[in-house]
Amino acid sequence: MIRVRLFVGVLLLACLLGGSLGQTLPTVWDVQNREQYPSPRDDFAACGRSNYSWVCDPNRMFSREQVEELNTILDGIHKSSCPCGIRCPTSSTNDNGFIVILAVVENYSYRGGEEEFARWYREHKQTDARCGEDAVIFYDFSINRMTISTGLRNFQTLTDSITETIRAPYDAKIKSQNRDEVFEGLKGFLGVASKVYHGTYTPPGLKVWAHLLIAALASLGFIFMASILFCFCTSCKTFWGEKPAPALDEMPAEEELGKSAGRVPFYHIMPSGIKGDDGDNLIDPDVDSSPTAQEMPADDFAMMSKVAAGRKGRRV
Ligand SMILES: *[C@@H]1O[C@H](CO)[C@@H](O)[C@H](O)[C@H]1NC(C)=O
Ligand SMILES: *[C@@H]1O[C@H](CO)[C@@H](O)[C@H](O)[C@H]1NC(C)=O
C-alpha cells in the first residue's frame, strides 16, 4: 500500500515537473510568446542555470559546460570598471561594469517588419542597467544568426565598427550549422569583446606606435589648418570691421594734427580726472591730487597709451 502511494506520488511529481518545463517554454518563439522568454537575472532556473547568470538557453541548445564557459566570459565583462560616472555606486566593488546578456533560442519566427528580439528583450526584460551599459546578444539557431542590441553607453564602447572588426574572424563559425562551431565562434567573439570592455583591446595591425603616429599627424594637421585660418583672418582687412593700422611713416597732415589737438583721444579710458597726452606729459598736473590718479599705477597707464597708440597710430 505504501509502495503504491509512493509510486503515485513520484509519478505525480514527475508529471508536474515535466509539464511545467515542457509547457511554459516554447521552442518556436515569436512576437506572441516572447513575454515568456526568461531573464537569467531573475528566472535563472527557466534559463537552465543554477544561479543568477548572464546566459539564457531555455531550449538547451548548448551543453551545460558550454554555457558555463560563456557565462564565465560574460561575468568577466561585468567586472570591468563601472562606466556610468555619477551613477556608479560610491563603494567601489568590482561587479558594476558592462552588462552583456546572451540569449539563445532554437527558433525565432519573425513576421516581417517586427522589431529585433534582441532589442525588445533589452528594453523590456530586467538587465539591471543604470546608464545603458547593457547589451543583449541574441542567437537564433534556426537561421544561425547573431544579433546585438546595445544601450547608449554600451554602444559608445562596443561601436558598430569595432563589432564588425572583432566579429569578422569568427563570422564563419558563428554562421555554422554545427552547434559546437557556433559555440567556438561566440566564445571567440565574446573573448575579444571582453577586451574592448576592459579597454585593453588593440585593433589588429595597429600597434601602440601606430596610434601615436596617427595622433601626432592629426595634431600637426590641426596646427597647420589653424595657422592657415589665422593668417587668412589677420590679412583680411574687413574681418574685424577696421582698417589695418597705418604705417608709422604715414604721419597725419599738419591741419589734421591741429584739428585733433586739445581733444581727448578715444583711447583714454581711465578714471575720471586723468587726461592723456602724447606720452611725454602723461599726467595733467592740476588733477594730481585726485585720489584715483594715485591709485592708477603708472605702468598700467603707460601701457594703455602704448597699446592704444599702436592700434590707431599716433593721432595726437
Ligand atoms: C548565487 O549567487 C549569489 C550571488 O550572486 C550567491 O550569494 C549565492 O551563494 C549563489 N548560490 C549558489 C547556490 O551558488
Ligand atoms: C522555425 O519555426 C517556423 C514556424 O513554426 C517554421 O516554419 C520553420 O521551419 C522553423 N525553422 C527551423 C529551422 O526549424
From TrEMBL:
It comes from the Eukaryota. Pfam families: MOLO1. Residues 1-22 form the signal peptide. InterPro entries: MOLO1. The chain crosses the membrane at residues 208-233. One of its GO terms (cellular component) is acetylcholine-gated channel complex. Keywords: Membrane, Signal, Transmembrane, Transmembrane helix. Residues 277-297 are annotated as: Disordered. PANTHER family: GROUND-LIKE DOMAIN-CONTAINING PROTEIN, PROTEIN CBG04600. This is Uncharacterized protein LOC109463987. It comes from Branchiostoma belcheri (Amphioxus).
